Amino acid sequence: MSTYEQVASLPLVIESYTLEVLSLRLSEDFTRLTTVVHLHGGGHEGIGEDVTYDADEHTAQADAGPILPLAGSFTLDGFSQHLETLDLFPSTTPEFPAFRDYRRWAFESAALDLALRQSGTNLANALGIAPRRVTFVVSTRLDEPANTSRVTRWLDRDPSLRFKLDPTDTWSQALIDELRELDAVRTIDLKGCYTGTIVDGSYDPALYRRLIAGLPEAWIEDPRLSPEIRPELSGHEDRVTWDAPIHSVDDILALDWTPRMINMKPSRFGALSRLFAAYDHLAANGIGAYGGGQTELGPGRGHIQYLASLFHAGSPNDVAPSGYNDPSPPRTLPRSPLAVAISPIGFRWGE
Predict the structure, then answer these.
(1) CB-side exposure of 123: number of CA atoms within 13 Å?
(2) Which domains does the chain have, with CATH numbers?
(3) Per-residue pLDDT tens for 276-300?
(4) Which tens digits make up the pLDDT trace of 99-127?
(5) Could you give phi then psi for residue 186, rounded to 5 degrees?
(6) How far is it, in rounded angstroms, from Cα 97 to Cα 196?
(7) How far apart are CA 348 and CA 163, in angstroms?
């Protein structure tokens, strides 16, 4: 039986739903908005988080209110098929197609939570997988001009922390040498698979050359496979891992070579069936995984920590508690690895 088949037939009753917009000012130029979807039914509530990056989309959804026809009696899979027939952006057209998957995941994860709660069980029990303590890394960009101060400030608080960093063209050889001496970088996210976004990665082969040689223990995430850069990766393919292109098993199969590792972001898959099919594919083919975040502000962060505890607890998971993303982080934060914190029922972490 596949992973999805173990939950697909769970009964699900939805009577209504509500929306809750969350907000956090991350910088002078950017305020992060997400929306928590609350599904109600049978005296229970299921929650999921829409991590769409366009703030206007959250505002438009909130202004429209709970207008989708979601009420009814389903199986979990039947509800997913029902979602397939609906336009989850009825009043707008999202700028990026990926936003449709992000919102789909909010409703799918809320439905999973609700179905499990209505059945009096939790995801770990439903799948028969014992959760484990979750290793995490801190994902960040360095201060500009590029220097190691952000990393060293965190290390002063907790020398055991490890990092996932986003290199830019301003990274010098001296900076890379300093990072290598710190021995705390586990992943370098080159963001080479983005086009036309504010986070587009570098096109500079020389930067790739410096990074690959200078941080030999780090995973290389989402390199740009341009004719100029591809030769820099020769002999280092086993260090390459993928994130942005991965939305399904078909996307994994379409990669230029079989990877050793994949960044699994549930929101990129949208449908629970696609996510669980990918986990099954990775397990069957000996491909590793680590979890990835989308600057969740609410229950979505717990969801990715929960999945990490079941499927890839010991990897360099980009699932640090939300306080690590706060511009003014609290004085006390959980340390890696996170203790198991699954709820007795539902799809919840830390409750």
Answers:
(1) 30
(2) 5-121 (3.30.390.10), 127-325 (3.20.20.120)
(3) 999 999 999 999 999 999 999 999 9
(4) 999 999 999 999 999 999 999 999 999 99
(5) -105, -25
(6) 13
(7) 25
